[in-house]
Amino acid sequence: MLGPTVATLLLNCPEPDEVVRRNGGMGSQLPEFEDPPVVEVALSAQFEPLSSLGSPQMGLIWQHFRNRFPNTEEHAPLDPAIEEFGVARERPQTVHFEIMGRPPTPRCWFVNPEGTQLIQVQRDRFIHNWRKVKGSEHYPRYEHIRNAFASELVDFEGLLAKEHLGELVPNQCEVRYVNHILAGKGWDRLGQMGDVLSVCGAACSDDFLPEPEEGRFAASYVIHRTGDSPLGRLRVQCQPAYRKSDRKPMFVLTLTARGRPIGEGREGVMTFLDLGREWVVRGFASVTSPAMHIVWGRRDRGTKE
Hints:
The protein is an alpha+beta fold. The protein has helices at residues 55-65, 142-162, 193-196, 265-287, 290-296, and strands spanning 18-20, 38-47, 71-75, 107-111, 117-122, 125-131, 170-182, 217-223, 232-242, 249-259. Helix 2 runs antiparallel to helix 4.
């Protein structure tokens, strides 16, 4: 008898919104990998909408950044996203707003010549992305991306003040890592998600079902610091896909840490981004298997592998 065409692998998976507490026992050194599968990193600050920021003003912003980001694209604006706690919430959790009688200002991309870095700007969002385009680009590591984002955010705030476009009032911050885990090293078939993710065992209670054709995984974890109320969430998603260039199977593993700034203004944003990055990196190491850590060259000390 044929098995299901799609199986959602949730065996041995933690409950959504499971509280994971940080404490002194975790240590200060983050997991490190010589060849991580990361293909994109995005750092984002969300703020109260700037009503004065329309399409003409977007041109002013591009003029400021165009020496480094000469290429442009227009996209639909992202919905605001707020992580809330202690209240009933619907999924997906988004907050919609609309300015009556006025078409939405597009989300503008300012892209460097290589296409590997870009800035995204919309009325309530400022984002810096690093991404692989050809697939052979060297991952510059978080510190480099963080420094670029911090410098650009300073420039953006200064430009808003100069042009009297409003003041940034951050309400959420986000760190997102996208990983492409290609078949051929450690696994071969999309039904082998349990070989890639430690939180998804593929074993059934009996031998009736064959190996799944493919699988998906999603969970969220509440971000805490000892003694603090919830600060945000780490959301983990894994989906099957095929690489466009050669149709090679892969898993797309996305980890997103989102929450409120820890403090006021730009400093509060950067403090959460650093914490969010820690949760993304530690979360990546936690949800992926020791066998895949060997493939990626895990080299930090004190690990269980």
